[in-house]
Amino acid sequence: MNQSTQPSLRNATILVGMQFGDEGKGKLVDYLSEKYDIVVRYQGGANAGHTICFEDKTVVLHLIPSGIFHENCSCVIGNGVVIDPDALLKEIETVKELGYDVDGRLYISHNAHLIMPYHKFLDSASEELQGEKKIGTTGRGIGPSYMDKFARKGIRIVDLLKPEILEEKLRQNLEYKNTLIKQVYKKDELDVEEIVRHYTDFDRSIDQYITNTQTYLNDQLKHGKSVLLEGAQGSLLDVDHGTYPFVTSSNPTSGGACTGSGIAPNHIGKIIGICKAYMTRVGNGPFPTELQDETGAEIARIGHEFGATTGRPRRCGWLDLVALKYSMAINGITELAITKLDVLDTFQEVKVCTGYTLNGKAPKDFPTDCDTLERTVPVYKSFNGWKTSNSEAKQFQDMHPNAQAYINYLEDELEVPITFISVGPKRDQTVFR
Ligand code: GDP
Ligand code: IMO
Ligand code: MG
User: Would you place residue 8 in the very low, low, confident or very high pLDDT band (cuts 50, 70, 90)?
Assistant: First the structure.
């Protein structure tokens, strides 16, 4: 690792999901963390569920960066994240119970916004009101918390340090939210005193982690330290670039890594895209290659495709190159990781969507308006399956030739090196090329 004290311009790497989330970001960040000094989560909140399998353990992290199980690695929750303090404290306890120390290694941005009980309440109430048109959110209060942030009404981590300011802001917010809850959603008001008491008496154990993380990260980069920026969700759920309105309320795409951490773009050296060898989606919204048949059910069964946060079944389908090429462009991907290749090991035939047709024509770009995307019909290229387990492969050459052909085809089509192939959930089931 570069230990020079010269300003380092390219020591930060972004890892970004290329699809609708759950690509295996937790696994790859954990695998890569060994080589990084710091891992930073830059957006989203406890809507994320990042699974890490090591030794005999399987852990799902929602807020703490996936580098926490490497003791030489520091972990930062950046300013772009929205934090549910109850969920965070619970997660800190879980990590400690597993025998990993977080004190002195975990930093929480003083500028990160908080998720309050009224955010979670409004998330669910808004979904209920929309009925069939609902987004299918995780119910973790993400949208309403970002709404307050951009309306400049939010309460931030730094406010936890000053109980009198916190109380004033909470009372102001609760007055407004209770009017909304009563008059628009026709529900019972929330108990102001109970919420104020809970948060002003808040467990002070969180205080020690609160830091000006922008300054911390830039100091560390200046001293030659390396940083891995961990995205949550996926590019097609990005509020600006995804399948709006069926998206999350933040920017998982690579640009969001800079605003969500305070690391400037000229520090970024690599942008690693991560995608499954097929595709999944949780919640509602268009999904052109979705398989509502036995093949889709088979992928879901073999891939254990259930949401890591809500346990909901994930919708499954073939890999979509139109969507992937779009994600590559908006993120500036420099290398790609393909995960869950082993899930396709038993299939006779493996398909890839190479284009769409729409009213008899081929749209040039990935349509991000849902009405158009819903009406596209995928065009597939078929590959012979390999019908052999690749889950023991240590090198690319160990894989079945048909699996190699599948990866080589993707590399050629996407014009990007595929540097990681994941063949199982465990750390060591990773082939590095
Ligand atoms: P994330 O949100 O992107 O971190 O992904 P999730 O953790 O929500 O979902 C990925 C799931 O696939 C988890 O259960 C992982 O343990 C599992 N997983 C990751 N990589 C592989 C792989 O290569 N093969 C298999 N079979 N499972 C994997
Ligand atoms: P990770 O980081 C998959 C989806 C929800 C819903 C939409 C909006 O584990 O990949 P929200 O609660 O964010 O307002 O919900 O986004 N969603 C995810 N899907 N993986 C995730 O995170 C997700 N986080 C949110 O299902 O469709
Ligand atoms: Mg997940």
Answer: low
Pocket of ligand 1 (CB under 6 A): 17, 21-27, 49-51, 53, 308, 339-340, 342-343, 422-425
Domain 113-209: which CATH number of 1.10.300.10, 3.90.1310.10, 3.40.50.170, 3.90.870.10: 1.10.300.10
CA within 13 Å, CB half, 84 = 21
Structure tokens at 366: 């990935």
Contacts of 232 (CB under 8 A, 6+ apart): 17, 21, 25, 41, 43, 44, 45, 47, 48, 50, 250, 252
Ligand 1 mutation target, pool 27, 248, 312, 391, most atoms within 8 A of CB: 27
At 177-212, the pLDDT tens digits run 999 999 999 999 999 999 999 988 777 889 999 999
Q: Which two tokens stand for residue 146?
A: 């970002």
Beta strand spans in 277-400 (E) = 279-281, 315-317, 319-320, 335-339, 349-357, 377-384
Task: Provide, for the chain, the percentages of residues in helix, strand and coil under a 3-state DSSP scheme, each rounded to the nearest 5.
Answer: 35, 20, 40
Q: Is the CB of 17 under 6 A from ligand 2?
A: yes
CB atoms within 10 A of CB 57: 10
Q: Which two tokens stand for residue 262?
A: 């305070």
Angle between helices 192-200 and 163-183 (to 10 degrees): 150
CA–CA separation, 58 vs 332, rounded Å? Answer: 32
280 in Cβ contact with 22 (< 8 Å):
yes
- CA distance readout (Å), 219 to 24, 81, 125: 30, 21, 43
| Range(s) within the chain of domains with CATH label 3.90.170.10 | 10-108+212-432
CA dihedral 97, 101, 103, 106 (to 10 degrees): -100
Q: Is residue 132 predicted with pLDDT exceeding 50?
A: yes
Q: List, by residue range, all CATH 1.10.300.10 domains of the chain.
A: 113-209
Q: Tens digit of pLDDT for each residue in 347-404?
A: 999 999 999 999 999 998 899 899 999 999 999 999 999 999 999 999 999 999 999 9
**Range 10-108+212-432 classified under CATH 3.90.170.10:** yes
Question: Alpha helix (H) ranges present in 190-284?
Answer: 192-200, 213-222, 254-259
Q: Is 110 one of the catalytic residues?
A: no
22 is catalytic: yes
Which residue has 């909140």 as its token pair? 45
Q: If DSSP codes are grouped into helix, strand and coil, which group holds residue 138? A: coil
The tokens of 341 are what?
A: 């290749």
